[in-house]
Specification:
4 copies of one chain form a homotetramer. With about 300 residues, the first copy, chain A, is of the alpha/beta class. Chain A has a single domain, classed as TIM Barrel (Alpha-Beta Barrel), CATH 3.20.20. The first copy, chain A, is about 50% helix and about 10% strand. Chain A has helices at about 25-40, 60-75, 90-100, 120-130, 145, 155-160, 175-185, 200-205, 220-230, 235-250, 260-270, 285-310, and strands spanning about 10-15, 45, 80, 105-110, 140, 165-170, 190-195, 210-215. An 8-stranded parallel beta barrel of chain A has the order 1-2-3-4-5-6-7-8, surrounded by 4 helices. In chain A, helix 7 (about 175-185) links the parallel strand 6 and strand 7 (about 190-195). In chain A, helix 3 crosses helix 4 (about 120-130), helix 9 (about 220-230) runs antiparallel to helix 10 and helix 10 (about 235-250) runs antiparallel to helix 12. The longest helix of chain A has 26 residues, at about 285-310. Chains in contact: A-B, A-C, A-D, B-C, B-D, C-D. The interface of A and B includes residues 178, 200 and 254 of A.
Amino acid sequence: MTKLTADAQGVFVIAATPFDATGALDLEGAARLIDFYLGRRVQGLTILGMMGEAPKLTEAEARRFALQVLRHVDGRVPVVVGVSAQGFASMAALARPVIEAGAAAVMIQPPQTAARGDDAVLGYLTAAVEAIGEDTPFVLQDFPLASSVPMSVSLIERIAQTFPSCVMLKHEDWPGLDKLSAIRARIGRRLSILTGNGGIFLPFELMRGADGAMTGFAYPEMLVEVCRLFARGESEAMLDLFDRYLPLVRYEQQPGLGLAVRKYVLWRRGALACPATRDPAPKLTEASRAELDWLMRRLERSLEHQRKESVA
Amino acid sequence: MTKLTADAQGVFVIAATPFDATGALDLEGAARLIDFYLGRRVQGLTILGMMGEAPKLTEAEARRFALQVLRHVDGRVPVVVGVSAQGFASMAALARPVIEAGAAAVMIQPPQTAARGDDAVLGYLTAAVEAIGEDTPFVLQDFPLASSVPMSVSLIERIAQTFPSCVMLKHEDWPGLDKLSAIRARIGRRLSILTGNGGIFLPFELMRGADGAMTGFAYPEMLVEVCRLFARGESEAMLDLFDRYLPLVRYEQQPGLGLAVRKYVLWRRGALACPATRDPAPKLTEASRAELDWLMRRLERSLEHQRKESVA
Amino acid sequence: MTKLTADAQGVFVIAATPFDATGALDLEGAARLIDFYLGRRVQGLTILGMMGEAPKLTEAEARRFALQVLRHVDGRVPVVVGVSAQGFASMAALARPVIEAGAAAVMIQPPQTAARGDDAVLGYLTAAVEAIGEDTPFVLQDFPLASSVPMSVSLIERIAQTFPSCVMLKHEDWPGLDKLSAIRARIGRRLSILTGNGGIFLPFELMRGADGAMTGFAYPEMLVEVCRLFARGESEAMLDLFDRYLPLVRYEQQPGLGLAVRKYVLWRRGALACPATRDPAPKLTEASRAELDWLMRRLERSLEHQRKESVA
Amino acid sequence: MTKLTADAQGVFVIAATPFDATGALDLEGAARLIDFYLGRRVQGLTILGMMGEAPKLTEAEARRFALQVLRHVDGRVPVVVGVSAQGFASMAALARPVIEAGAAAVMIQPPQTAARGDDAVLGYLTAAVEAIGEDTPFVLQDFPLASSVPMSVSLIERIAQTFPSCVMLKHEDWPGLDKLSAIRARIGRRLSILTGNGGIFLPFELMRGADGAMTGFAYPEMLVEVCRLFARGESEAMLDLFDRYLPLVRYEQQPGLGLAVRKYVLWRRGALACPATRDPAPKLTEASRAELDWLMRRLERSLEHQRKESVA
């Protein structure tokens, strides 16, 4: 399988990890979900991210799931595998076999224990790169809201200079638009930058220099279309489309609850056989489901309206 | 002046604190801003909240500003004054004179140093109530994203039971909809609940039992109108209106940057003579201002479109 | 093997996890270390605690190490196994087999993700007890300095009431003496309380009602003797002995560095074949080793002096 | 008054802030306490540090207290004034008048809001230096356990290079010995380094290159004597003396409770008229006071023993 390079672009959807109603890993469901994503024409897949409930899997389950996904994707799109772990031994025990099995890259987020200043983050990554292998391309995740690890522009610059195998940044700081502009301006080499946060700032992020999105919004076709419209320079059309989805993007963008929202919508759309999340995870109440149903109906109506307008 | 009661409803706008270009407190600007808010028919005002840059004022400045606002409002609407401080001596030194001068209530958020479990939060509030006076109505702010102090439903219940002078909750947890429903269901007495977070979930919060909003979104007339449509049972119209503003609500809802966004929009709308924030505060870059100008133009166009439609 | 009960007393030494110079798990070294500890007459053993570098082992390594220790101890003393993990699946995957293999109990510390108030901690433990099995006795670790999870006296009381299988508290808050007294006074049932923090407050903790120590100070014979002197009511002799070791206890009690200090002293004492710690872990510099050598020489001299005095 | 320079050495005792039993500031008590400290031959004084309960004073009280101390000291020793504040306006409002009144320097600790990486800390200090004045010498406090702001050796190096007015480091990281050695080795200019943490590592810190201590241990004469013995090269005698006090140093070194311990001992020694701390602060229980009385008796006995031995 081709390795990920700093030229990567487009939408790498963060894939959910399917469980059945008993909480068991649903490997067949994984195939179905992957087909759903590929049917939406995403450019890549990311598995075992935070929204993939990675920490809730045993190490054996994580390995099994990753290998199954890689087999099913079979090289059609690049697959990034999240390998954040409490220790480097566990990180290596996942990263080595998935790279061997054809993963395009692994994704690493420095943990809170590394949040002791810039040098500590660099020290952590030095050890992590040794664990995954110097030739393994990796995606650096910058998501301080979840990790409590702040990374300044100059730190990201130092990381890019120090580690040639860092080919991509998952930019997920918030607020992050000016930071994104600054990273683009400062880093003296090509680095792919995909953005997260459910895509809630995607149109502006593209205008600031992002190469696409790495997030798991349950309508990935919107992310793909927003990137396409941006590439064609149709800014107003891009925002028009995006804003129709924004009420749902916003609803999904609730820390903690977002995962359950996302799985519910994916289930309603037929992409998942079961919307179950593994404990510990907030469950959707009746009221939340009703709100989501309402928002989905309103979205459909809005898209219908748009279709009619564009026909007329 | 009438004191705040647990029956309070509507929109209590969080007022910005105006500075001039040198960073000095602009007391005349305060009058102009208050007039702008009152012209949007808000039901109340909150000053010296976090978005009021309270920690950046000296204690003397905070007192002077609060007294000036109270004088200018002169009882037309209730005014809540944020009195969060590093110590109880400072808290009392602000709370006592503003209550005397006619403030309807004070607002308190337990600080991170109190984040040692439920009992520690209660202990903190016991001392705070002693500092402000047992007869002084207070608003409890629940904003864990900023304060790092988690407050569960059962803790809020204990607080409501323990302190009769706690008349209002500024509900700003995120995600917070189910929590809001649970608080409403569990608390055995009347408690006014206003919501924050820039209003980004306001329609759902009203449906879950909130009494209104306490936030500083730069178009407070939208918050007022959403509450009115909700009260009349016009849910679809409520969302239709809200969703037009959502792109701006979302843009303003950036931790840290949001204050600069808000002041810029208020300045563009003529409510502020100067959009300056005091250091330390992120400043708006050229790119951010251009994005905001674009979003404001799109909002105007959308509102224009709506007006035409409703006429037609 | 007998299960741990709320009547447990004495010194449960936190065992180091031996690695060889390449960083590989040294299972033979484990046997040698266990023999060292049992030779110091400890009443129990705790493995895979934080000072046992548990997060640095893969799940497979942790299981192998625990089973090897249980085999070697072979029922001579009760063994507690730390099973804190990022997810409940991983926790169950370690807890179930070690209990089957004769572990006396498992140890759980609520993680930072549970630090959302008292109810969140209880919710976490409910799920954890389901994962390990309701019949599995467990030790609750209260170590907020490392975990960032505050647990008040009333929360610990609720935990003791809710979970009959919680038989022991590893009390490691700091400051903790008054809390210990309060826990003893408030909890309406028998609960074994062992204390941590390297033993730095052990004499006072015993006077406040602790049943012993669960810590890994590299001279466990001192901890055992302090408990014995306390039981005999010889308070001055207890402090006289303790204070001779205090300079080393203090030196070992350095967050982060303490593990390397402990392994170095155990190695110097012949209990470990190799003082290596797995990355990430601070290493001892030349200067630190010289300071430790000096402190060990001073301790020997002081003990020699005491022996002569007691003979005279 | 002479300004503090990077050549400062010795013991700068952190002075307690005396309150009377009602919680009111006791300005006369301040004079008595200062006399006690000067009688112990300390080389300097630091007021309004964290252990000086600075955040519990109103801004007006802090100013009044500082001016009173400066008047009473009247140039006999240099006085450092802590000016950490929530905002720069408040910082300037304290720093400017105390420098004018003869303070030798001010002390600044970057607050948690600045804990966003190395650049954020530098940005904070740039604004702080502007607030206090570029000519005002300042002490940088590095106390991450309390501040949650990590500062690496290379960050401290950058700070020393950037701000010529940074003349002293209050080194209070823990563990900190190797960091201290590294700072001394790396920083290319003279910088005074005094250490904190109640002095619990003072002998080693001196050996690693510290210039003295800045801490408030209630027996400052021990800190002074340890520095003297170190300067004379009498290492064993230095440790012999230090170890006699270590049980009390350790007891005082309890985060949160330490302040009450310190004030109690100062009161028992006649240095304070009243041991009261302002809320919020843990109070000493009967049991804690009994433990302290015991430790003080044991210390006296030990010192008596030493005197006899040295006479014999």
